[in-house]
Design goal:
Largest sheet of chain B: 5 strands, antiparallel
Distance between the termini of chain B: 22 Å
CATH class of the largest domain in chain B: Mainly Alpha
Number of domains of chain A: 2
Largest interface: A-B, 88 and 87 residues
Strand content of chain A: 5-15%
Strand order of the largest sheet of chain A: 3-4-2-5
CATH architecture of the largest domain in chain A: Up-down Bundle
Radius of gyration of chain B: 34 Å
Radius of gyration of chain A: 26 Å
Strand content of chain B: 15-25%
CATH class of the largest domain in chain A: Mainly Alpha
Distance between the termini of chain A: 31 Å
Number of strands of chain B: 22
CATH superfamily of the largest domain in chain A: Multidrug efflux transporter AcrB transmembrane domain
CATH superfamily of the largest domain in chain B: Multidrug efflux transporter AcrB transmembrane domain
Shape of chain A: elongated
CATH architecture of the largest domain in chain B: Up-down Bundle
Structural class of chain B: alpha+beta
Number of helices of chain B: 17
Helix content of chain A: 55-70%
CATH topology of the largest domain in chain A: Multidrug efflux transporter AcrB transmembrane fold
Oligomer: heterodimer
Helix content of chain B: 40-55%
Number of domains of chain B: 4
Amino acid sequence: MEFFRIRKDIPFMRYAPVFNVISLIIFVLAVFFLATRGLNFSMEFTGGTLVEVRYEQAANTAAMRTALVDAGYTEFVVQNFGSPEDVLIRLPLKDMTEEDAAADQNMARQGEAVLAALTAQPDAATPELRRVEFVGAQVGREMAESGALALLVVVIGIMIYLAFRFEWRFGLAAILANMHDIIIVMGFFAFFQWEFSLPVLAAVLAVMGYSVNESVIIFDRVRETFKKTRGMETPQILNHAITRTISRTIITHGSTQFMVLSMLIFGGEALHYFALALTIGICFNVYSAVLVSSPIVMWLGVSREQFIKHPKPQDATRTADGACV
Amino acid sequence: MKRYPLWKYVTVVLALALGFFYTLPNFYGKSPAVQISPNRATIKVDAAMTSRIEAILKDAGIENNGIFAEGSGIKARFTDVEQQMRARSALEKALNPNAEDPDYVVALNLLSASPAWLTDAGALPMYLGLDLRGGIHFLMQVDMPGAEQKRLDSLAAELRTLLRDRNLRHAGISPTGKTIAIAFRDGDTQQQARALIERNIPDLSLVVEGETLVASLSAEATASLAKNSVQQNINTLHNRINELGVAEPVIAQQGASRIVVQLPGIQDTAKAKDILGRTATLEIRLVDETPGALEKALRGEIPFNTELFYERDRSGGEYPILLKKQVELTGEHLTDAQPGFDENGQPAVHLGFNSTGARIFRDVSRENIGKRMAILLFEKGRGEVVTAPVIRDEIGGGRVQISGRMTSIEASDVALLLRSGSLAAPMEIIEERTIGPSQGAENIKKGFNSALWGFVAIVAFMCLYYLLFGVISAMALSANVLFLIALLSILQATLTLPGIAAIALTIGMAIDANVLINERIREELRAGMPPHSAITAGYERAFDTILDANITTMIAGLALLIFGVGPVRGFAVVLCIGILTSIFSAVVVSRVLVELAYGRKKKLVSIAIGQIWKPEADTATGKKK
């Protein structure tokens, strides 16, 4: 079997301006939604209490709401979670200062209080407690901080790596394509107000690491082709490199997507948004490596002279990075 | 054609054998067990205990699959849950005759069912996180400012006593926030006081501000206070959690002032919180030695203003002891308890009281020379006499020594008990996660299914698309999973649901390396290279790219490992280990398999890597060397 019977190099670069405009529009939209709607941070970041219960029959969420109001709760969310029997109850942190330890302690007891309130109604069915999570304000803030820090460290780490590995034009292009990907993934989360939890953050970081390697593989080919062949225009070389690697790109991402799809189908609610973030990430990954980072390299004015510092004879000598010329 | 080096074959065979060996325990599953551990620091579980448990089970007619001592407890394995339940009630009845006051914690547990030779060789199954096994996770913050304040208050009292005892007149000692201001009327007194304080209370560092000495906790004192407070709170939590009957509790320090408590298998959050939040108290009372009073009390006629308690001796026997109701001193004045030796070289426990406590102790001991004094520890409203020594002399200075009738082990146990009886500093729960057992089992099933079906889909595709090379890639991928699980088992890294997701993701990404290699070989073949050279060139040229592709993902993995918290850490650990194993299995293992299949054939005409499609004519851009 051979899926990719490509006779000529596909002229990707000819359509680059069109796709760059499309990218820019999606990117601007993503930034717009991130700015206006914001991310729907999970309570791991915001602090609060989350109680998951399961009933024998489909849960009567209206009755649960009444029960909670009767128990004196004002701000809460009751929603089905995956199935009609499973219900998720979220309670925000009450306004309190960090020093207000007593209040924190009371918050920590909310899980039991909620369950008591639900069973207190005379004809209420007794739910099975599936999960209680409580995160204090301080811990939530720390999680948000360390999450942001992790994001920053990944960006810087990848930049340093690319600076060592490639010429600055490639590094810059790869990072831009990378940011484009993750901003769009987060834009999706902002637009649909999907819950942005710790696993989703992990998925976003994984996408970053995974996305850069796509650009790296294409750039490797670009460099190799620049060194090997003479008389080709830069766009032609980019087209050649992309065409040569496209089968690997699609097969690799297809395989990873098999796995992510499997998580989306079998993983249940707990892995749902994690898999979703990866799916969007992988799709934009393929797209951006081919149609975002390569054109950027072209606009930045990459040329053959940047790779061959001293004119060398054509026969095989090894360059510092071990590639055969 | 060079032969592929032998040492690489050996490495791969060795790695596979080790991988299989360490993965093995994960296949055995878990068997029900009962775990017996002492409920008090003074009780030791030893070999005699093992045979005692064996006898109890034999009497009750319960078959067991082995009894063995491990750590501070004894574990007994059973074939099924029914036997386990029966064994628990039989052991509970036999070991704890007084249910109100259990000597031992008898807890249900699940143990790895892997055979003993595997366990002895250090091969253990993966350690499951709470989200997979169910249980409670607490993160508690020790209130360090509160502890410092408490210490400063007691030091202020100590200062007053010290200055009064030496007749140094001061114009007021006022604790102001984090410092204590000691005002003096003249510089001379101030100088004397300064020297005195520096000699006697080294925990304070002094600064002269005009006529005033400003004292604050020294840096070392603050550091040791922080360390001791957290350590003492951990000890206290240990003691309390033992009562919950948790099989494998985790109580560990996290950061400078936080404690993580993980209670697998516990469902009753309310009870757990009650027990964790409880305070034990120390009391010092006088023994009522009126002749005949004890006998009367034992008959049920407890004399007025006294209470009957029991004192435990070395052999575990209990002696009744009648104490006066009046409490002379409580544990809030106790600042320290350390094991040591007395002037005769006998094991002793050294207690330290703050100035108020020291004064009370001095007065009580002076007025009661020759009488007995009891040190009681109250827990759950039930008191036990730790020791009841005879007062030989007036004891001043706040340093008290309890000696006699104890071994050095007992001395350290008593010291621990006294220290850990109460919390050094208040704590608050700042994070909580409770996961029901059904939820945990479901998470395992869901995670496993996602990984399995994704794996099947990838393997099916690879085999169809790359034929024999696809089969080899699939085998390398299986080896990767084997190595990954073996490494996770060896490291005993906590496996969480995000960790399972990372295993799945690693499988999905690991195939990239094989795709790169296979595509490169096809390309070399397309360019007209003979099969052997195409394989060699394919592996060599793809390696750089594979390294590149993995380094960037590794950067993300490491960042998550450093900054990640909770379950996400589990994701990062698996991701990082997975990258290492996938490079090894894709590059080395698959190469060895390819060499096994083709390496010996001298004249290789074609290889089964799927159809190689060649463009009929070279286009202008496809010019190859």
